[in-house]
Fold each of these.
Amino acid sequence: MVSDPMATIAARLTPLAPGAIAVVAMTGPDAQSILRRILRHPRRDEPISFETNRPRLCRIFDVDRLLDDAVVTLIPGARGNVVELSTHGGVRIVQRLLMLLQSEGATIVDAWEFIRQSAADESDPAGIAARLTVECEIDQALLACQSRRLARWLLRQRALLPPFLEAIHTLDTSARDEFVARSRVAIRLLQGVTIALVGPPNAGKSTLANRLIGRDRVLTSDIPGTTRDWVSETAFIDGWPVTLTDTAGIRETTCSIESEAIRRATAALHHTDLAVVVLDGTLSPERRLIACEEVFHALPANLPRIVVANKADVASFQGSSDDHAEIVLSARTGDGISVLEQHIVRHFDWHLLDDTTATAIFARQLATIEGVDALLST
Ligand SMILES: Nc1nc2c(ncn2[C@@H]2O[C@H](COP(=O)(O)OP(=O)(O)OP(=O)(O)O)[C@@H](O)[C@H]2O)c(=O)[nH]1
Ligand SMILES: [Mg+2]
């Protein structure tokens, strides 16, 4: 990356996708002279005078070819003024503008690098850059964010985390340990959590998958062995996004297609963080226990699991007994689903993530804390 203070840098600050407006920024010693060469007054053939923080409507020319109209604003920054060119949001326009700036002598960098460099304040080079880096990291997480709850929480972290990190060395050990503990929870959530629904055929795994996903995503039927290849989809557990995998029912079978489906289901479990074992609550407790043991046998030994007894809505439901089932629910009616969600929340410690407590979302943000590597690897 360019860190030369004499370099003039430019970057696209908005995604390269069709939109109403795209923003390209430029800063550095040659920024003003580049502007003079490429901008013209929208109506008259006269130079444009700029004042900082006063937007101006201009025309961008590539030699004599009109490229686009743009609103241009000069904003004071650490390396001189930052020029923001807001053009129409066509992908091609933005690409041509960046090529033009490059041909005029600017070095094109990515948005993150641009913000980092344009904020590098001589009086506090570490401070402002560190704060902006954290904000950029949170913005990146927001771009990929899949749920409203997570987005709201990330937006709160944008305000809470930078000042908290600046003051981290003033905290006592227990406050730091708590910060590291909840940050580990957040980092894992942001990396992506996978939950698999496993169990014998016909237990209601796919019905439960559809309920957690919130729509009819997978086929269900009373024919045992309906689900063949496993299916993954984003689901929201108490608002937090997870990848939910519905798998083929596990049983002894002579059907070669079904046994391949079961083999794939169990292979997928090696990349899973939690198994929800779904049992058919209408079976007798004895049969359920046998089915449960059979499923446990197929799971990787160290895979955490939550066992549920499904179909609690039907008269023939056999109640919970000694078959490991912790939760009784009905995937069909939704009864007991929130209990399952709370179990999952507690399993991953997501209750530690609230909107008032600063929490790191990337391991890098913990790097300033002594001994944190050891904590993270446990
Ligand atoms: N009464 C009742 N029936 C349910 C419930 N959940 C699922 N079922 C029914 O049980 C049958 C099997 O449901 P699925 O969701 O296809 O079961 P599965 O575990 O995915 O089955 P396989 O894909 O064959 O392994 C269907 O007829 C569902 O309508 C429930 O909570 N209550
Ligand atoms: Mg199924």
Amino acid sequence: MSRRLDSPFGKDAPSIEAATDACAYCPNLCLHACPVTTATGRTTEAPWALMTLTRWVATGDCAASPDVRRALGACTACGACTEACIHHVPVAATLQRARDLLHRRLGPDAQSRTPAIPAEAVGAPIPAGASGIPLWLSGDMVAFTSIARAAASRWQGRSRLLFDDHADLVCVRDLYPMIDAAVNASLVLTSLDAMSSSPPIPAGVVGYLPPCTATARLAMARTASHGSYVASLESWLGYAPALLRWDETGTCCGAAEPFHTQEPAAARAMAERVLQNARDRGIDVLVVLSASCATHLADVATATQSNTRPIRVFWPGGPHQTEALG
Ligand code: SF4
Ligand code: SF4
């Protein structure tokens, strides 16, 4: 009898097992790409380790449990491993699917610390997380679908939606249509909107951290393209900022929910690594276009300001502008 018959993943086990085939024979070649592993030094959270655990569940060699679900949550879904894998394994998508299947198998997580979804005031920018993206990333598709459809219904009739966080914008653009919750409005980032109204240009060497959420985590295998954002920044600044990127998807600072709430120490270490990378490049001001990333990085910059070279985190979000001295 095939062990798959006993797999907690049920009929989805073969596809999950197939997605992890290459990893089973790979010497951990994407280890260097994972921002969680490089920041914490814990190889138990490397893409290879999470894919191996996923494979064991798929083959029935490991039981589904809250501990397994939590272990697979040590991933921001940034997609850096997907970009780095020479075998083109869709790691981030496979891990998200595995979390989804575990949620379906185990039911709601009583220990879940997925943050509450904020609701925006009418006409105000949509706050980070309000699209339900933390629930999608956690794999709780039932809750995500409910939140997303309610939000889409609330936003019907609006011609323009302003988002504080890029992940929410991409969620509404790419994921909502997949659950019949399409929104017929132009989708705009608060920070880009603010730049067009010419907020003060920060003094010093300006660097730019692209959102790792751009397309990698939601659009799976597509290569991220930040060209239009960089062009907007250049137009605002009048010159090209220093680009802070380690790969095509950018560098994940650990702000993504629910990862940020569930793995606070790792999230802080990831932010410290991003900030140190910026300092090493001589950057004085780090421009970040997503609210949650800017807030997280600013918090860490402030907390570490006594023993490092100061660096400012700047979110050109108009009245919601975040600026911190670290
Ligand atoms: S994702 Fe690719 S590089 Fe990473 S362990 Fe799997 S096969 Fe190897
Ligand atoms: S998606 Fe990002 S955080 Fe998750 S395993 Fe891959 S590189 Fe690590």
Amino acid sequence: MMGKEVDEMGFFKDLAAVFNKREMTFIDSFKESENIYSFLFEKDPDLHWEPGQYGLISITHKPIKNATKPFSLASAPAENVVRITTRIGDQPSEFKQALLELKPGMKIKMSGAIGSFSLKNNNPTLLIAGGIGITPFRSMLKQHAASGNGENKQIHLLYTDSKKSYLFKDELDALADRSVADVTYLDSRENLEKEIESFIARYKDNGTFFVAGPKSLVASVSAFLQGKKISKQKLKKDAFRGY
Ligand SMILES: Cc1cc2nc3c(=O)[nH]c(=O)nc-3n(C[C@H](O)[C@H](O)[C@H](O)COP(=O)(O)OP(=O)(O)OC[C@H]3O[C@@H](n4cnc5c(N)ncnc54)[C@H](O)[C@@H]3O)c2cc1C
């Protein structure tokens, strides 16, 4: 099938999924690191997602402004739980305050999962995460490990964080030990670009690229890739607002 037809099919699938709003029961939350929290929800048996996709999460236990926001599903379908992981600073938005107020058994709503940010082919793949942008990649790599075909695909993860506060580091290291992916931790722009260049040099035109994180990082990495003649079709982006 042609790329455009696949995109159009994806669009209609997404549209249908957006209207399919479901209640989800909150199970628990925990602090991952300073200012980063994960929230776990029960997964309905009929909820399906492709690792890397996101849900539109709505707060329903009280009226707030901007009650619906997109969040990558950080869990793999194989984990049988819905997990979102987010940064909550000293002055949280109303939405994030409401997340912190959730008690086990309370409900939120989610529509989706939606988006085309998922591994679709067997090409060598470069995943580029900036900070909190690691969330969709956790799902992809966990699912990849669970489906047992870790060694058949070349996946490289470049994870950059200026504060070297690498979320999910123990899990990512364990996945790297099992050869699910090569994982490189970075803390500077310069080294990130060097690593991207070495991937491009190694795989020439065969590579597929994913970049996720704060909007500014996604924009600058995309511009860098386009400068290296990587076509738009080979690049998928998840730009997180509010960071
Ligand atoms: C495809 C996609 C996937 C995404 N996945 C994730 C994900 O996995 N994890 C994630 O964290 N985000 C993700 N995002 C971004 C997410 O949707 C939010 O935009 C982001 O988390 C910021 O939310 P916020 O409520 O803090 O933002 P905003 O309301 O935009 O607030 C931004 C900042 O403004 C300040 N602020 C806002 N309201 C107040 C207030 N009432 N009082 C004081 N200060 C205030 C706070 O400092 C806050 O941090 C994703 C976005 C997209 C498009």
Amino acid sequence: MIFVAGATGNVGSELVRALAAAGTPVRALVRDPDNARLPEGVEAVTGDLNRPETLTGPLTGVRAAFLLSGYADMPGLLAEIRRAGAEHVVLLSGGSAASGDMTNAVTRYMALSEAAVRESGVPWTFLRPSAFMSNALRWLPQIQAGDEIRVPFPDVATACLDPFDLAAVAARALLDDRYQGEILEPTGPEALLPADQVAVLAGVLGRDLRAVGLSNDEARAEMTAAMPVEYVDAFFDFYVNGSLDESVVRPTVLQVTGRAPRTFADWANAHADDFR
Ligand SMILES: NC(=O)c1ccc[n+]([C@@H]2O[C@H](COP(=O)([O-])OP(=O)(O)OC[C@H]3O[C@@H](n4cnc5c(N)ncnc54)[C@H](OP(=O)(O)O)[C@@H]3O)[C@@H](O)[C@H]2O)c1
């Protein structure tokens, strides 16, 4: 039995589908079972990742667990996983965890989550992916409102990754002990600027969309309205100070899954209805 946290999210929902398609028994952690759409045969369980004591039942009998980073009591969460007798944790972390810069709020939660997993004694695999293609869904309100898409950090290219491919890597790691003790860094197939992504979306949606780059001051104002300032600072550190280079293309998806990673056009075509 494999436990999947975040089973209704971009990555977790793809992972549940991948594992179910592989014929593996899956237990999916959801918060709202009435509205969670899961493949047939997948067992839904409820619990709160911020309250490890709610996961005792959901974790009973699991062989391996897929976990997200950054919840309130990661050591407590890992203690529940260990107590359940799980033999492997696959943790979704992020590329910045490598720097260990604890002054950056995003890096800090990733690094602390990795440390909790390492210290638990449960064998692990860490996934440090590049930015997700699904981040483009943030543009949905703008796309619905008009053709101009205001983008922060217009000069920063990312080898963005389809959550489908990240989930395929996670599935291999969960099903195959050979990745224990490894840090996998899956990326997409090419580095794209925000304007490149907007151009692809324009083609897929048959719209005259165009990207308008925000200045750093404009980006800071818009982001501060949407998230805590420590996260705004973290993204400025990544993309303006250049502490995180997500433009590097790595062969991980091909090496682990035997398939080339999907392009942004593949992702956009698969998710076109989400933008309409
Ligand atoms: N976006 C990127 O570019 C990027 C890059 C590197 C790493 N990451 C990491 O990847 C992670 C997953 O990304 P994603 O796009 O799949 O996220 P997502 O779509 O926002 O999904 C998050 C999932 O976690 C669940 N969840 C949230 N809080 C919970 C709680 N307290 N208890 C139980 N379940 C809870 C949500 O459930 P509900 O459906 O009930 O809300 C949802 O299923 C991110 O959190 C981030 O740390 C992201």
